[in-house]
Write a structure and sequence with these properties.
Elements (H helix, E strand, L loop, with lengths): L1 E10 L2 E11 L4 E5 L6 H8 L7 E6 L2 E2 L5 H4 L2 E4 L11 H10 L5 H14 L15 H13 L5 E5 L7 H16 L3 E5 L3 H7 L2 E6 L2 E7 H7 L5 E5 L5 H8 L4 E7 L2 E6 L4 H11 L6 E5 L3 H9 L8
Parallel strand pairs: 3-8, 3-9, 6-7, 7-8
Antiparallel strand pairs: 1-2, 1-4, 4-5, 9-10, 11-13, 11-14, 12-13
Helix pairs in contact: 3-4, 3-5, 4-5
The protein binds adenosine-5'-triphosphate and magnesium ion.
Adenosine-5'-triphosphate binds next to strand 2 and helix 1.
């Protein structure tokens, strides 16, 4: 669906994309993750020919992409990071305008606009001007404008920034539905839990370069991150902690505030630890396994925490 090879994009001295690569298959929800200024928006804008780039190759639907490829563009939906609609027009008129860029048949357009209104939950706001809408509703209008022509490939650039949890859930469910109705999705976000929930594959970028690419499982396996066994409200002396540390497949261990945190070299260590605790009459309240999540991976590969860019 998308092939991007060695893309380079400079804004004067700033190298926004530095040999950026991307491969998205038909039917995927693909995550594009990176901290502020890492090049996510620039990547999307280059791919869909909104901005020129310096070198590299871009293929969409198996064809080389360029600004005048109207047949490709009409199969693309773009929900930009910055809200993009006209304040002079009503909700209905805005969606109708964007649908009108690709759909010329009046009746068909009317049907599609109504479907987009329904899909984004804007039924009660048809005649509102955008400046009368809440932040969450503006985001939904932004989405309606981007998807109303029923594109096969949709780019969402941080669609849930600064929206309340209810609107956010509606947006996420909507994206899943668009995908199950056949659209391929590229999704950027700072919210790891969203990407974990939505995307089957992802690439983490920083300074315009791909740092790591794959499924969530492949990515956590590629990094050195280990699952952790957390044991709460446990009374154990130092000597026993040191003994656990020497058991097979234990990477590291910390004991603070009655919580024992053990980094596991293999899941096989769990049984051995439980047996050890039992044999030594060591009691605890609960025990759980914390799997490395994408936040941990992100921190590991970029050295940065994810931040919200509200
Ligand atoms: N129009 C522009 N002119 C000059 N520099 C730009 C322009 N747009 C982006 N940049 C720079 O290019 C780099 C990549 O920016 P980009 O907006 O693509 O990042 P991003 O990953 O989308 O960030 P964010 O998470 O904040 O949206 C940054 O250093 C940014 O300052
Ligand atoms: Mg951006």
């Amino acid at each position: 669906m998308i092939i991007v090879k060695d893309l380079i994009k400079r804004y004067k001295e700033i190298v926004a994309l530095d040999n950026f690569n991307l491969r998205v298959e038909d039917g995927e929800i693909y995550g594009l993750l990176g901290p502020n200024g890492s090049g996510k928006t620039t990547a999307i804008s280059s791919i869909i020919s909104i901005i020129p780039y310096d070198s590299g190759e871009i293929y969409l639907f198996g064809e080389k992409m360029s600004p005048n490829k109207f047949e490709i563009k009409k199969n693309i939906g773009y929900v930009p990071q910055e809200l993009a609609f006209m304040n002079e027009l009503t909700v209905y008129e805005n969606i109708d305008f964007f649908a009108g860029l690709y759909i010329y048949d009046k009746n068909e357009r009317k049907k599609l606009v109504e479907e987009a209104i329904d899909f984004c939950g804007l039924e009660n706001f048809r005649k509102f001007r955008p400046n009368k809408l809440s932040g969450g509703l503006k985001r939904r209008l932004n989405i309606a404008c981007g998807i109303c022509h029923r594109p096969k490939l949709i780019f969402f650039d941080e669609p849930t920034v600064a929206v309340d949890p209810q609107s956010r859930n509606k947006i996420l469910e909507g994206i899943k539905e668009l995908n199950s109705n056949g659209s391929t999705i590229v999704y950027t976000s700072h919210y790891m839990e969203e990407v974990e929930y939505l995307c089957n594959r992802l690439t983490i970028i920083d300074k315009g370069r791909n740092l790591i690419t794959g499924t969530k499982k492949q990515i956590t396996e590629k990094t050195s991150l280990k699952d952790k066994l957390i044991i709460n409200e446990i009374n154990i002396d130092r000597e026993k902690v040191d003994k656990i540390k020497k058991l097979p497949y234990i990477d590291s261990i910390t004991y603070e505030d009655k919580t024992l945190c053990i980094s596991l070299g293999s899941d096989m260590a769990i049984g051995t630890i439980i047996t050890f605790l039992k044999e030594n009459n060591i009691y605890y309240e609960d025990l759980n396994i914390k799997q490395a999540n994408l936040n941990d991976v992100f921190l590991e590969v970029t050295g940065k925490e994810l931040r919200d860019n509200v």
